[in-house]
Amino acid sequence: MTPTRPNILLIMADQWRGDCLGSAGHPVVETPHLDELFYHGVRFRHAYSAVPTCIAARAALMTGLSQRSHGRVGYADHIPWNYPVTLPGLFADAGYHTQCVGKMHVSPERSLLGFHHVVLHDGALLKQPASANHDQFDDYRRFLRSQAHADASLEDTGLHVNSWVVNPWPFEERLHPTNWVASEAVDFLRRRDPTKPFFLNVSFVRPHPPFDPPQKYLDFYRDRELPPVPIGDWCDRFLSERSELKTCWTRGDIAPAALDRARRAYFALITQIDHQINRVLMALAEHGVADNTLVLFLSDHGELLGDHHFHSKAMPFDGSARVPWLMRFPASWKIAPRQELDAPVELRDVLPTLCDCAGIPVPASVEGRSVLPLLRPAAGSAPWRDYLHGEHIFTPPESNQWLTDGREKYVWFSQTGLELFFDLAADPQELHDLAAARPERVAFWRARLIAELTGREEGFVQDGRLVTDRPLTASLQQSQLRPACRQSPPTS
Prior knowledge:
The protein is of the alpha/beta class. The chain has 2 domains: 7-375, 3-Layer(aba) Sandwich (Alkaline Phosphatase, subunit A); 388-485, Arylsulfatase, C-terminal domain (2-Layer Sandwich), CATH 3.30.1120.10. It is 26% helix and 15% strand. It contains 13 helices and 17 strands. The strands form 4 sheets. The protein has an 8-stranded mixed β-sheet with strand order 5-4-6-1-7-9-2-10, sandwiched between helices. Strands 12-13-14-15 form a 4-stranded antiparallel β-sheet, with helices on one face. Strand 13 (400-404) and strand 14 (408-413) form a beta hairpin. Helix 6 (177-191) packs parallel to helix 9 (256-286). The longest helix is centred in the middle third of the chain and has 31 residues, at 256-286.
């Protein structure tokens, strides 16, 4: 039975930069199957993760809420997910067969979040209790030990989960987490209820470190000439504002050869994922559902990969905060292919977009917006948003607030007051800080940030001005995380 409503295939990678697509013009990385997705679909050039770390990004995607409402403005584990409205829950309630394969990064770990079933692999997570038995909740770990040997572990490579060190995958390629996620997704298509449309979330744990691609993918990039790592003319100024390094995963002095290996391994993991995504796309065709399946590919956040001397995520720069967003629609929709759209979109727009595509009413609590009107303009449509607001609470002095419309970006570091301003249209790599040269634009964006932060519990705005060095927390009290606290007055 072919459902009249579209099937939904949501493919999510972890820590995939927005520029790392062949169709986006990357000079080295090869993503032939995702490029084919674009040739039959659309790409949003300015897609962002408003709080670019794993948990906060996934909260925005799964709830359709801004960080002010979902409450996660930094990285914090073990805070229960108690949101009343979730993306898979809406689809399940609408009669879809829902499944997630791969990474969830929710708490408790086996929370279904509205899915009918989850086949889980969250990777090697930080801040787990020393007594935690990962085999109790991680399906992939049990699989690896059953297929390799009884003591096989993700940690056998000796790599840290946020490291830039490279070591090839030590087991058969078919046992790699990337291949396992694709295999489980393909198996769902075999086992699904054919009388219902499906919502399948395929959630890869790479190219997030550890950088452990199979050797053949490392060899693929071994002799490629890599472009220079972008280093902004503002970096020295930023360094002068920093305190002593307190974290091993954002900034560090890495030998050029080690950084070169890390970049090649990151690209290798991306190409491996691209090949495995094609397995899933081919399975759609084999089961006769490709023509009625909407495919959306994106990531939770990027990877700085040495940009401006930073690594990993959580920072306001495009290497960290910008994500890929590719969509291919059912053939009968006749949406013009190869469109590249400039409207600024973010992860909270995923829920209303997919609901809109499936004809599912969007709850009034949802703050994101469907991108479908951008592809099917109609008279009287509301104008799209002017800009996005992002942030991340972090190690002093790196906590940041930022705004962008895809053409310009304003950054304010809330612990020091340092401001940066970039003309992204002329300088997409954020090499040149124009804050001193364009004070009128800085003032314009600063006023917008003041409007965004007015009333926030941290007290960022006092007497109409931004205030530095406020007490910070990774989860807001006035949010849907803690409904009982939502009416509490702002703290000073």
